[in-house]
Structure formats: C-alpha cells, structure tokens
Amino acid sequence: MVNKFGSLSLQGKSIGKLTFAGRNLVGANADVAVAMLNVNNTLNTENVTPQAGFDFSMPFGTALKLIDAKIIAGTARSNQRNGARVATKTGTLLPMSDAKTDTLPEEEYDAVFVSGKDKTPHGRVRSADAFDSHDLVLFRVTPNYKTDNRGEVARDDYDEPIISNYQFNFIQQSKSGDVGNDDNIVRILVDPAESERLQAGLKPGDKLVPQGLKFAFAGNDATDWTVYADTLVALDEKATEKATEKPASNQSKTTTNQADKAKG
Question: Which of 9, 212, 236, 237 is the most buried (most CB within 10 A)?
C-alpha cells in the first residue's frame, strides 16, 4: 500500500484550547469510549481516545491538555465493508494544572496535519513517524487531473486537461532490498507550478528531501495518508547547506573569543 504509515505523533497543544464536552461511543461496534472536546471555544469538536481511568464525569467546559497524542487509522462504523478507515486520535488528557508535557521535544513536530480539499490545518505532527525524509529515491512523476462533478477530467478553455498536482513517487532506499515489504512506496503531491519547475532536471534515482510537509488522512483501499510538500530539494544541496552553516557558527565563536582576548 502507498503511504501506509501506521501512526503519526500529534502535538496536542497545537490543536488549540481544549475543553471537555462529554463522552461518545465510536468504533465498528460502538464500544470505544472517547472524550468529545470543544476546540478554541467554538462549536468544532475533536474526539480523543483517552488514557485508561479517564474521568468522563467531569463538568462540561473543563479545560484540558492533550499530551503524547497519536493519529492512527481507526475502524469506521459505516462503510467498513468497503475497507474505509478514519483518522482516530489517542493520547493522555490531563488538567491544565498538571506539570506533565509531551515526551517528544517541540522541534520534532515538524509537519502539519490537514483536512479537506482546502488543507485546513488541525495540528502539528512528526514526519519521522512516516518516513526518513533523507531516505527517498525518486522513480516516477505523474500528473493528477482535476475532475468535474461527474467524475470526468475537467478541461480549460483550450480543452486541455487541468492538472491539480503531480505525484512524486519514491522508494525508501533503506527498505529497497526487502522484497517482502509491500509498503515501501512514498507518494508526495506537489502543486503544478512548482512541480514543473522541479522536473526540468530530474531523473530516476535522484535523492530528494521534501520541504513544508503536510499530512492528510485518506483511509481508503489504496492509501492511508496523503502527503503534500511545498517543494523538494536535492539531498546533496541539503548536505551543502549544513556544511556551510557549521563554519559560519565556528567563525562567530572564533570572533567572540578574539574579542574577549582583546578586552583582556
């Protein structure tokens, strides 16, 4: 399966201000108790499967914080015969006064979880749970065409098909020798203008690092996740950037030391 990642770590505080709204039952058999949470004092809600022993009898509107959260593929109550899955959030819900925080450092949450065609942000996630962004080898690029309300390819005024984005298809290099691994392909979508700029000099086997990653949950029989990127940068260019950063920092230290000696 393409983009089958299991779960992504979710930064709870990036969702917004959470307040308790009540208890709900979800899952294929309606036997999983979740906490319904209002977000940012609006009528938007999030369902979170909390830790064992969570107090569902707390007053409505109690402010809570979510730590060590994950987004996983859950079972949909409807459409389960068709293999549909839904994005399910799990984690530890605590009073705001509790001192506990996420186990992962803040900088680890380097991507955005989005929903809908307009890519509405719904929190920050950890891309390393999906794949190593420095381990991707390109093997194919194909266009995705925009469709109309009848499911047919939409065309512009010149009767040309309208491209919504391009699929950049990668093999994870570290897993490429594992013939038993059917979940090795990573597909990243890039907007048309940026894709056409990038493709000019690309060839199979190029190693590219995605920038500005966004993850959306698809949950169908072809893929669990849709991945978007603002752009892609050649791996050797990233290495060059890092190499040039280090001398600059060392130079600043040397300058500081020389200034200290001059003062002395």
Answer: 9
